[in-house]
Amino acid sequence: CLGTTWTQEIVPLIMSGGDPASVETLPNWERVPWLEEIQAYTFNLEQRASPRMLTTHSPYNMMPPSFFEVKPKVIYVMRNPKDVFVSSFFYHGTASFLVNPGPQTDFLHKFLDGKVMFGSWFDHVKSWLNAEDKEHIMHISYEEMILDLKDSVGRIAQFLNKSLDPEVIEKIADRCLFKNMKNNNMSNYSAVPREFMDQTKSEFLRKGIAGDWENQLTVAEAEYFDSVYKDKMKDVKSKFVWDLKTLNGNN
């Protein structure tokens, strides 16, 4: 999810007090490694200074036992599932190590049935919304970051107990604008060989907008998505930014 990639840009800058070297010297998969990737074992993470920054796609109930003992701070990034679907569809068409998504409607059904990498979006989101130790978890949405990046950076810094001057927060927000992050070769996955990720088919960092699903889904697909969403989320009390009509318009 682009929201996660975005956070891999924001958090190192916050922790370094805005030092651009924090996002210019290491590719993001090494800067904030993925726990579930075997490559993480080669980074000698236990030798890194605390606090360590890590990323995961895992649902709450699949986190390792040490997670529940240490209780680290977690920034959980959510996104409109329609846009998550669109992003995933294009990514599957780009990455050779993933199954070809096939026709869009077929992949849509797989996505909504949870028969995709990392399982059901609905189960994933609900697992983290219902997590224990809520004071250690910050929930933020991609849409909130789109609407006010500077405010989002400030809130993340506060959650991480990093006191930064307003000028530094503004500098970080500017550095993390989508157009700037897209030009950062340590973040745009341009270093990944084409045999693994063919960005001539679709760029890893595509548009950086909210609501792109409107350009991609047919009316029938959107209506079916809505019906499944309504059923799967009927027991969720949380309100999401993407449910507001202002975000269902053109962006």
TrEMBL record:
<feature type="domain" description="Sulfotransferase">
    <location>
        <begin position="3"/>
        <end position="236"/>
    </location>
</feature>
<dbReference type="GO" id="GO:0006805">
    <property type="term" value="P:xenobiotic metabolic process"/>
</dbReference>
<dbReference type="GO" id="GO:0005737">
    <property type="term" value="C:cytoplasm"/>
</dbReference>
<protein>
    <recommendedName>
        <fullName>Sulfotransferase</fullName>
        <ecNumber>2.8.2.-</ecNumber>
    </recommendedName>
</protein>
<dbReference type="InterPro" id="IPR000863">
    <property type="entry name" value="Sulfotransferase_dom"/>
</dbReference>
<dbReference type="GO" id="GO:0008146">
    <property type="term" value="F:sulfotransferase activity"/>
</dbReference>
<dbReference type="Pfam" id="PF00685">
    <property type="entry name" value="Sulfotransfer_1"/>
</dbReference>
<keyword id="KW-0963">Cytoplasm</keyword>
<comment type="similarity">
    <text>Belongs to the sulfotransferase 1 family.</text>
</comment>
<dbReference type="InterPro" id="IPR027417">
    <property type="entry name" value="P-loop_NTPase"/>
</dbReference>
<dbReference type="GO" id="GO:0006584">
    <property type="term" value="P:catecholamine metabolic process"/>
</dbReference>
<keyword id="KW-0808">Transferase</keyword>
<keyword id="KW-0128">Catecholamine metabolism</keyword>
